[in-house]
Design brief:
This protein is an alpha+beta fold. It contains 2 helices and 5 strands, in the order βββββαα. α1 runs antiparallel to α2. The structure holds zinc ion.
């Protein structure tokens, strides 16, 4: 399916051939088809970078919480395993 990009907010969506408005920006923004393969790749890389960045922030946040609140290593284990579960879901959505 072709990839479409909103010229206003940059949101992308894979959609069947057609004319679409951006779901976020409304009828003032017509989604433009991204035909260049490198542009598609760029979007995917950008998304992956965002996801990795979010994961790093989460890991740092957990470390901060542990430091400030003094939660036990076992609780940290629990939080991290829950996060990896969520991380797996996010990763699946990014591909
Ligand atoms: Zn938009």
């Amino acid at each position: 399916m072709p990839l479409y990009r909103c010229p206003k907010c940059g949101r992308t969506a894979e959609l069947p051939e057609g004319k679409y408005y951006c779901k976020v920006c409304g009828p003032s923004a017509t989604m433009r088809q991204v035909t260049n393969k490198s542009a598609v790749l760029e979007e995917k890389v950008k998304h992956a970078v965002d996801v990795v960045w979010a994961r790093d922030r989460i890991i740092r946040a957990v470390a901060d919480i542990q430091h400030e609140v003094g939660i036990s290593d076992r609780d940290v284990e629990k939080i991290l395993s829950e996060l990896s579960r969520l991380w797996a879901i996010v990763k699946k959505e990014a591909t």
